[in-house]
Amino acid sequence: MAEQAPQVQIQIKADERELLGMYSNLAMITHNSEEFTVNFIYIFPNAAQGKLVASIIVSPGHAKRLVAALQENISKYEGQFGPIQVPPLPTPDVGFVH
User: pLDDT tens, 21-58?
Assistant: First the structure.
């Protein structure tokens, strides 16, 4: 019987800015053979502009684990609060500027 590795508690440091989080109402996802990039964007209401609030780059394996974790949490949420309604949204024409 194989021995299991001992559990290690990981300490994560975060300052107040990270703990507050960032709001995003649009995500753009791209990928190549080595990584997935998720750009989280906030589109301003009643304005034709937005702001990139975070860009997260993960390996393909981590992207797949993230999808599974999100699906598990969505299932738990819907079990507690009911189905999430997702109204159709128009696809915005979004591009980055410097």
Answer: 999 999 999 999 999 999 999 999 888 889 999 999 99
The domain ranges of the chain are 21-81
Q: CA 40, CA 26: separation in Å to the nearest integer?
A: 6
pLDDT (tens digit, 9 = 90+) per residue, 48-66?
889 999 999 999 999 999 9
Contacts of 40 (CB under 8 A, 6+ apart): 22, 24, 26, 27, 52, 53, 54, 55, 56
Q: Do 33 and 1 touch, CB atoms closer than 8 A?
A: no
- Identify the H or E element spanning 40: strand 36-43
Distance of CA 61 to the CA centre of its chain: 15
